[in-house]
Amino acid sequence: MQPFLDFLVGFLNQLVNGISLGSIYAIIALGYTMVYGIAKMLNFAHGDVIMVGAYISYCAFQYWGLSPLASVLTAMVFCTVLGVIIERLAYRPLRQATSLAVLITAIGMSYLLQNIALLIFKSDFKNYPKEIINVPSLTASLYGRELKVSGVSIVTIVTTIVIMVLLTLFINRTKLGKAMRCVSEDRGAAELMGISVNKTISVTFAIGSALAAIAAVLLCSAQWNFDPYTGSMPGIKAFTAAVFGGIGSIPGAMLGGVLLGVIEILGGAYISTQLSDAIVFLVLIIILLVKPSGLLGKQIREKV
Amino acid sequence: MNAKKKKLIYNAVTFGLVTVAFVVCRLLDSMNLMSRSFGGQLIPICCWIVMAVSLNLVVGISGELSLGHAGFMGIGAFTGIIFSGWMQHAFNVQDTTVRLIVAIIAGAVFSGIAGTLIGIPVLRLKGDYLAIVTLAFSEIIRSLINCLYVSVDGKRLAFGFLDSKLPGRLLLNGPNGAVSVDIIATFSAGFILIMITLFIVLNLTNSRSGRAIQAIRDSRIAAESVGINVTKYRMMAFVTSAMLAGAAGALFGLNFNSLAPSKFQFTQSINVLVFVVLGGIGNILGSVISATALTILPEMLRDFGQYRMLIYAIVLILVMLVTNNPLLRSFFDRLIAPVKSLFHEKKPSEPDFKGGDTQ
């Protein structure tokens, strides 16, 4: 009985860690999936918007002397503006171009953001201030064993739930949300109905980038340090999560993100930390082979 | 007939340009006119050209977006290193040419096997899903190589997975990758590999199979309905491309003293994709030129120090905007128009010039 209880409590601890990491992936994946659903493009620069959010919140707190909440809000505003500017300058001129051309432009944008950050902040790791998310951790006793949930995890999970509820309400209840659903379904028809496609896409980028800033704060608080390449790997994993859940589907991104985080942490804990990335990608491949459009993705019938 | 002639000229120009570039580099080298940093780039350039041409076979000719090309390169590189080291230490083969050839063939074969295994599930998917799964596979390959330890023990190879305690001389050391590799790659081998790659890819695209592959790209359903075996031809393009990438990887791996698996991250696949897209999707000669130019460009920008990758990124974005935005494109077309008309005017005067020459 004793070893089993040890295992159970250990498992629960890892599960909480997994859900916490997965929540961050879910927030990032929302940005990918919304942009993909509405603008039909893979925004490779999304991961680097996260990195920008991390630096802005860091500077706001450390150098400009803002309060934690104010620095997070500053990062959100900055990222929102950045996302809209990127869309306006780099992606809007390519609206009629092939998807590969847009993909390469997004990659170029990703390099650009990384290198600007490298020039300004240099390549060394910076310690992310722990004071930004300053919540005491929660400890519970279970069969005499300690079940611990860190403050960052609590904030992450709560924030993610709030974001999910608000976003679902926004998409389903507001006029702008309806416009977004329309553009995602049929851009041409939406335009004929008087919806401004450009405005809708701008709003999508704005929301996605603001979420990226939140994700940046949560991610860096959880891993404590960051550098100009911080956004790249979580970005790719979140993109994987979006595909996992069915790209273009908002509940899918949430589900995919959380599952991916749980698989990564559990795989790392019980199989091998070195292989945790491989396990994540392997699960993705298996899911896609069984269900080629992702967990909650719509199966589009091919018309001849 | 005309189209056939055009293709012939295109192929001749492709082979010719590569040969001329090779001869020029050789001459410059023999006259000591080549800077050290550029001389060191020659073999990597050959590898990147082969990578770009082989990826173009998948992206351009077969029309699938693959983001995992670096994975195949990684397989080729480490297979090549293992075979070269095995032959050197276990069988005492000192002839570097033999070792290089065997290493490249082994790299191609192993990468081809991986390509077949990956291709079976991957090619069931389409579009962006295929892209993400190829990316996932290349990351899996990198993670596995990261955990792999190989050593030569007497005549046989010893393998360890997540287990570094191996007898004998270590060839592959987990996350540190290959260490103290005997550098046997040569520029001539790179040139020959490019020629073989061009020969395979150009012949494939102009053959019956190539036309089938292109038909599938243009309309899968139409191709299927006229009796083309879709899976077979898509596999053919995918596996050929994987094998060529493996060969390029073997050459690449044997050009450095040490090589870590992190060298083959997905960013590397994306770099090769950038070569292909900037060179023109489906355009083989374009891939050769852009792979060369974009490998040299960051080297040439070395004087700008830390600004070089920034400049590279801006150039990349601007080129994509200029070539793909209808408004900007027509603006630039008008700018180039006088230059173009100059060339068109020259054409009728050509016979005149020739006539004058024979007199």
Quaternary structure state of the chains depicted? heterodimer
Strand content of chain B: under 5%
Strand tally of chain A, please? 4
The CATH class of chain A is identified as Mainly Alpha
Give the integer mean of the pLDDT values of chain A.
89
Number of strands of chain B: 3
What is the H/E string of chain A?
HHHHEEEHHHHEHHH
Largest sheet of chain B: 3 strands, antiparallel
User: What is the end-to-end distance of chain B?
Assistant: 33 Å
What number is the mean pLDDT of chain B? Answer: 85
Our count of helices of chain A gives 11
Largest interface, and how many residues on either side?
A-B, 46 and 48 residues
Strand content of chain A: under 5%
**Helicity range of the residues of chain A?**
over 70%
- Count of separate structural domains of chain A: 1
Shape call of chain B: globular
Structural class of chain A: mainly alpha
Number of helices of chain B: 13
Class by SSE composition of chain B: mainly alpha
Widest sheet, order of strands of chain A: 1-4
